[in-house]
């Protein structure tokens, strides 16, 4: 694994890069690389065995410069088009989790010619009647200034499992980790703080433009983005397979069940 800065339109974009082979652009979510820890997760390490995995930090996250021009999801998509140009990527695989999955879906719908294969893991972005996305803005505030239990319950199958406690420990954590959580929450609030949260109503009418094969993965016990959102992605993306459910996992399936999720993704990309 190596980290480096990429100059994009006068701003610094921090990214991690590992592996060789076909390029795979990974866009992170809230419980993920850059948003919580500045290191690869086992999920990414598995993918890097057969691909050149590139994981940029969203604007204002980790060591990436903030972009104060970002107000809506379209601004983030345009930012990533500039990142893709700077990386000189022609056609590539695109994998996104949560907010990163929403960005990936928007990017694939607008520029289908750039995407070889698309993978969405617990992706937000859709409005589904009667199945609202959870209020992460309220739950990201530690209870009594000490406990992240409610947030862990939203992002993981269990608030007491080891990987959930490692990412969101009770009490005051390392200052660097607290800053990363704040950075991710700040970016999320700029584009997703509109009840019901984390959606772009026109997206569902644009998904038919996606021409690449698509894989949609969901945790069985996702407490943040309801499973019906995954079912809707599968229904509306023309070349998507059936919804793949990771048993025993919550919203962060690629963290909780890293080997199983990575195998699903790697097998799909290898076809």
Could you please describe the fold and organization of this structure?
- The structure is a single chain.
- With 271 residues, the protein is an alpha/beta fold.
- It has a single domain (2-270), classed as 3-Layer(aba) Sandwich (Rossmann fold), CATH 3.40.50.
- 35% of the residues lie in helices and 17% in strands.
- The chain is built from ten helices and eight strands.
- It has an eight-stranded mixed sheet with strand order 1-2-4-3-5-6-7-8, with helices on both faces.
- The relative contact order is 0.17.
- The model has no long low-confidence stretch (mean pLDDT 88).
Short description:
This protein is α/β, with parallel strands linked by helices. It is 35% helix and 17% strand.
Topology:
Layout: E1 2-8, E2 11-18, E3 23-27, H1 42-47, E4 52-56, H2 73-87, E5 92-97, H3 99-110, E6 115-121, H4 136-139, H5 149-155, H6 162-167, H7 175-192, E7 214-219, H8 227-236, E8 244-246, H9 253-256, H10 258-270
Helix pairs in contact: 2-3
Number of domains: 1
Rounded radius of gyration (Å): 17 Å
- CATH level-3 fold name: Rossmann fold
Q: Give the beta-strand count.
A: 8
Order of helices and strands: EEEHEHEHEHHHHEHEHH
């Amino acid at each position: 694994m190596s980290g480096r800065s990429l100059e994009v339109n006068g701003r610094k974009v921090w990214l991690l890069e590992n592996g060789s082979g076909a390029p795979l652009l990974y866009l992170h979510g809230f419980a993920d690389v850059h948003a919580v820890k500045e290191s690869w997760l086992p999920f990414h390490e598995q993918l890097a065995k057969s691909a050149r995995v590139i994981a940029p930090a969203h604007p204002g996250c980790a060591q990436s410069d903030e972009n104060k021009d970002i107000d809506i999801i379209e601004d983030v998509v345009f930012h990533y088009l500039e990142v893709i140009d700077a990386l000189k990527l022609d056609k590539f695989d695109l994998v996104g989790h949560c907010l990163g999955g929403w960005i990936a879906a928007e990017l694939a719908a607008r520029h289908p010619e750039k995407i070889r294969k698309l993978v969405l893991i617990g992706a937000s972005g859709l409005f589904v009647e009667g199945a609202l996305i959870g209020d992460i803005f309220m739950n990201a505030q530690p209870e009594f200034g000490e406990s992240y239990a409610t947030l862990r319950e939203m992002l993981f199958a269990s608030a007491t499992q080891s990987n959930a406690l490692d990412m969101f420990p009770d009490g005051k954590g390392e200052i660097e980790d607290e800053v990363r959580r704040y950075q991710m929450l700040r970016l999320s609030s700029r584009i997703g703080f509109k009840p019901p949260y984390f959606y772009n109503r026109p997206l569902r009418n644009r998904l038919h433009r996606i021409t690449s094969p698509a894989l949609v993965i969901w945790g069985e016990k996702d407490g943040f983005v309801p499973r019906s959102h995954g079912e809707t992605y599968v229904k509306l993306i023309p070349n998507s397979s059936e919804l793949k459910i990771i048993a025993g996992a919550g919203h962060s399936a690629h963290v909780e069940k890293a080997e199983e999720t990575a195998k699903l993704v790697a097998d799909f990309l290898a076809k």
